[in-house]
Please model this.
Amino acid sequence: MALARNRRGERGVDYWPGFVDALSTLLLAIMFLLSVFVLVQYFLSTEIEGKDEALERLNSQINELTQLLALEKSGSQDLADQLASLTASLEAAQSDRSRLQQLLDEGAGAGAGLQGRVDALSGELDAEKAVSARALSQVELLNQQIAALRQQIGALEQALEASEARDRESNTRIADLGRRLNVALAQRVQELNRYRSDFFGRLREILSDRENIRIVGDRFVFQSEVLFPSGSDVLNPEGSAEMAKLAEALKQLESEIPPEINWVLRVDGHTDSVPLSGGGRYRDNWELSSARALSVVKYLNSQGVSANRLVAAGFGEFQPLDPGDSVEARARNRRIELKLTER
Model:
């Protein structure tokens, strides 16, 4: 009668592991979404920094071209002023020539000296015309250069506008991709959680009658004494029988989970804090815990579980369930843990 009451009490406590399972799943999903958010922010900041550098280079080129255009305008203005001065001199010389020509017509007696002066003035006038022609040529060349600079500035402005438009389009695509990625990842997490719950339900049905097999959070915990002799990594007959049950459940689960969900069963080996003597096969608890986890993984693989769905890890005495140093605490810490998780 007392045994029946104890079993009913144990069944009543089964609500707590389910609550812990749901809470840990929610925390994992939140941590994963935060990681994705940080990655997206990093890629956005990297791309924006590259665009800012390109914009700074374009602005620098535009400033240089603007300064060059100002210098060319200043030179063009100077040449225009010089041309105006030469034109005024030319008009004055033409006026003098007209007056001299009138004097020649009125007084032919002073023809020799006056004709020499007229010839000199004509030479000066021809020289001033040549200078004026060169100035006009330089002004025309400067006008052509200014037109070319304006075309370059227009092309740069168009390139800048196109770059800004591409940036806006890229940012929109990145935001949309982030949203779709978050939705897809949330769906994958939900699917894996559903299969994890199904798997744990099956294991509860298979292993719930064993007192030395416990559920801790999202893990099944086997006491090492159930699976291995003391100080050994070779499964005993009882441990092989338990692992054979587990292998059947894993093979059924493997056929049901879609291949795009990248899951693994992680097998973690743990020991107590009592150091090994060092004279045996293993030098320390780390090696012993790793060898035991690997032994379980190899046995499951020999029973038909795919090798790419199995992971072995050894933690030695560094992840205790019970920090105490009593015989009972050390017994609880000697264990093999099974956890269904993402790769």
Q: What stands out?
A: The radius of gyration is 47 Å.
